[in-house]
Structure formats: structure tokens, C-alpha cells
Write a sequence for this structure.
DNA sequence: TTGCACTCATATGATACCAA
DNA sequence: TTGGTATCATATGAGTGCAA
């Protein structure tokens, strides 16, 4: 009798769930999962672009993807989990959010567990999509989503080597591009500062409250709080792709320096430089200078690249720009360059300026002071020798 | 030839920070 | 709350160029 009551209650909650969240139950005979799908063409309801044409090579290289395969956008699978906690051991992934392109539209598919017992069945659709999409796209997925998923799959004795799968984790690329210009590189911060959108607390839930909200649903059967969780996950999948679109647009060659105010072009130059494309980096830094959007740091870096290419006059101009603003690395670079070109008097002038600047710091770096002083003494010696001749 | 300064590549350890 | 990642700072060594 009690079993019949349990069964009826379970059926009732499942009907309520579907009526509230929408979607369809999977075809499993027992413990089916609720799959909620929605598609967008071009833009999301929030107005962010989901129009991804291709993936720039520099991004593929950075993510150590096989560039020769040239994965197209239809190979991408965005993944984001909602779980019962941050741990790896007993954490349940009760909502698997997935995003991919299909027939020119961006489709978000969410697999929800009405009860924890349905977890095994949630993996069928996930594995299907993993088999047809070669590149994972996540936000902090390397540290969180993938380890959680692997641990849950292992618990069910399913062996899937997700760590070997090609993977673009946008958190780290976002940090490279915005860590110097934004207060934080959390997804919500990027949404606000880069995408220009703000989540409405009336329809969304704070990530930290999600485990508790799912727990309350399991205890009470109240499905209302789940609406916010599903919306939260849907927005995560949408904004992860929107971020991918912005990053790809910012990195695509030729770089249109200054075109997009959201882009830190110095960071773009550094990325190209780190991937061995120093000429692209130099071109970007040069254009920043020409457009008067350069910083003292970007001009200094341009100077170093010019020096590498033996364009000493241009390098000197760059270092002089920074030296005029008392930028310590520029003062040092200028002193080194002038010593190399045998302009010892000038080199000494900048060395002494740097020395007095460093000495006046509240906590001077003693080793650096020692090095600068050594340079000062050497230059004095060279000047004296020159005078003797 | 020697010594010094610098550049570049590589290795290692510490750190920050992001996810629910 | 935990754990994983990339980055940064630092150290080291090989190689190069220059002056004496």
C-alpha cells in the first residue's frame, strides 16, 4: 500500500515537473530523465550574439587542439553541470546543460534528474552528444565539471576518458584577455562587463544556493525553485557560447585594433606573442600606439620587439616614451639600449633616475638596487675611459 | 682569451581564483 | 566549503656579442 502511495507521489511530482519546466521524459522504462530543449538563431533572448563563424588558429593552438583537423563550429559541445556541491566524491550532477549548433541554430539541451536514482539514465544522451561532437567548451570545466562527471561515470562503472577529449576551457582564456582590465573573471563579471547583460534575480539563482534548492525540492516536492536553477543553467550555456563568440571575434586575423572597446588589445598581442607570432603582436602594439590607445606597458613591449628586430631607433622612441612617464622597466630598457649604442652619458642619466626612484620606494628591492648601482658604476668607468682617449 | 652583460629556453614552486 | 588549472616569479644554463 505504502509502495503504491510512493509511486503515485512520484508520478504526481513528475507530472508537475514537466508542467512547470517543460521538456520531454526520456524513453527509459524506469527512472527516465527530463530533457528540456530550446534553440536560438543568431541572438539569444538577452540580445547576445550566438553567431560563431569559425575558430581562430591562435585559440586552437593555445588550447592545444589539432589545428590540421580545423574543427568547425558544429563540432563544439558546451557543457555545464549543476551539482549538489563543490566536492568530487559524493557530489551529484542533477542537471547537465549542453549547447551545440544544429541546422544553423544554437540548441540548448538540459538533462534533469527528477530523482537521484535516475542519474545513470542521464548519461545516455550525454554520451551520444559526446560521440558526435569532438571539442568540449566549458567555463572552468577542466577543474570542476570534468572531474565531477568522471567521478559520477566511474561510480556507475562507465569508463570515458574525458580528460583526453579536446577541450577549450574559456575561464583561462578569459583570464588571459581580461585579468588586467576587469575586477574579476568569473562568468557573471564577464557577462556584465563584456557582454553587457545582468541576470535578473527574479528568474535566476546564485550558484552557491543551488545545492540547497535541489535538496529542498527532493525533501518537499516543491518544483518552483527548480525554475530558477534551470534558467541559471540555460544562461550559463548561452553565455559560455556568447563568450566564445566574443573571444573568437577578438582574435580573428586581421586584428582590427581599436574596433571593439571590450577588447584589451595588449592582451591579444601578448597571446599572439606567446604562441610564437611575434610579428602579429608587434603589428597590434604598433597600431595601438598609432591610434593613441597604447599604455606605457604596451609601448614598452613594442620597444622590446623592435629591439629584437634590430630597429633600435624605434625601440629607443618607445623606451623614451615610458621613461618620460617614469616607468621603471622603460628606464632600465633605455639605459641598456643606450649603453649598447655607446651613449654612456645618457645611459648614466637614466640609470641614476631609476636608482633614485627605486631608493625612494617604501620597500625597495635590494637586489634590484644592487644591479642598478652596478650598472651606474660601470657606466661611470666607461665615461671616464672615453674621456681619457 | 677572458670576463661581463644580455637573450632565450626550460624547469620548478607558489599563487590566485573559479566552479556549485 | 575543495580541487585543478594556468600563470607568474624565480633560478639555471647555454649561447652570443663585445671590450680589453
Amino acid at each position: 500500500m505504502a509502495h503504491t502511495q510512493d509511486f503515485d507521489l512520484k508520478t504526481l511530482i513528475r507530472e508537475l515537473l514537466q508542467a512547470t519546466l517543460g521538456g520531454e521524459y526520456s524513453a527509459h522504462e524506469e527512472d527516465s530523465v527530463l530533457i528540456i530543449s530550446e534553440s536560438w538563431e543568431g541572438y539569444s533572448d538577452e540580445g547576445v550574439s550566438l553567431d560563431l563563424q569559425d575558430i581562430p588558429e591562435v585559440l586552437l593552438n593555445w588550447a592545444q587542439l589539432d589545428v590540421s583537423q580545423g574543427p568547425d563550429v558544429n563540432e563544439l559541445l558546451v557543457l555545464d553541470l549543476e551539482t549538489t556541491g563543490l566536492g568530487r566524491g559524493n557530489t551529484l550532477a542533477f542537471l547537465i546543460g549542453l549547447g551545440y549548433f544544429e541546422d544553423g541554430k544554437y540548441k540548448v539541451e538540459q538533462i534533469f534528474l527528477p530523482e537521484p536514482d535516475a542519474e545513470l539514465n542521464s548519461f545516455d544522451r550525454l554520451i551520444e552528444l559526446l560521440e558526435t561532437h569532438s571539442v568540449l567548451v566549458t567555463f572552468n570545466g577542466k577543474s570542476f565539471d570534468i572531474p565531477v562527471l568522471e567521478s559520477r561515470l566511474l561510480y556507475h562503472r562507465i569508463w570515458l576518458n574525458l580528460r583526453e577529449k579536446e577541450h577549450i576551457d574559456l575561464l583561462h582564456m578569459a583570464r588571459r584577455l581580461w585579468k588586467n582590465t576587469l575586477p574579476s573573471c568569473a562568468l557573471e563579471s564577464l557577462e556584465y562587463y563584456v557582454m553587457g547583460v545582468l541576470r535578473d534575480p527574479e528568474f535566476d539563482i546564485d550558484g552557491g544556493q543551488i545545492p540547497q534548492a535541489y535538496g529542498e525540492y527532493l525533501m518537499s516536492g516543491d518544483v518552483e525553485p527548480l525554475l530558477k536553477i534551470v534558467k541559471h543553467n540555460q544562461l550559463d550555456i548561452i553565455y559560455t557560447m556568447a563568450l566564445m563568440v566574443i573571444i573568437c571575434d577578438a582574435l580573428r586575423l586581421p586584428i582590427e585594433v581599436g574596433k571593439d572597446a571590450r577588447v584589451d588589445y595588449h592582451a591579444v598581442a601578448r597571446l599572439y606573442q606567446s604562441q610564437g607570432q611575434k610579428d602579429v603582436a608587434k603589428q597590434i602594439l604598433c597600431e595601438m600606439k598609432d591610434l593613441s590607445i597604447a599604455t606605457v606597458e604596451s609601448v614598452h613591449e613594442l620597444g622590446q620587439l623592435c629591439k629584437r628586430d634590430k630597429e633600435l631607433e624605434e625601440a629607443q622612441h618607445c623606451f623614451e616614451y615610458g621613461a618620460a612617464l617614469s616607468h621603471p622597466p622603460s628606464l632600465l630598457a633605455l639605459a641598456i639600449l643606450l649603453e649598447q649604442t655607446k651613449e654612456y652619458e645618457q645611459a648614466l642619466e637614466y640609470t641614476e633616475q631609476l636608482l633614485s626612484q627605486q631608493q625612494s620606494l617604501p620597500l625597495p628591492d635590494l637586489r634590484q638596487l644592487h644591479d642598478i648601482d652596478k650598472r651606474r658604476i660601470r657606466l661611470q668607468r666607461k665615461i671616464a675611459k672615453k674621456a681619457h682617449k
Observations:
- Chain A is about 55% helix and 10% strand.
- The CA atoms of residues 47 and 216 of chain A lie 33 Å apart.
- Residues 85-88, 140, 142-144, 146-147, 169, 171-172, 175-176, 179, 208, 340 of chain A lie near DNA strand C (CB under 10 Å from a C1').
- Chain A has a mean pLDDT of 91.
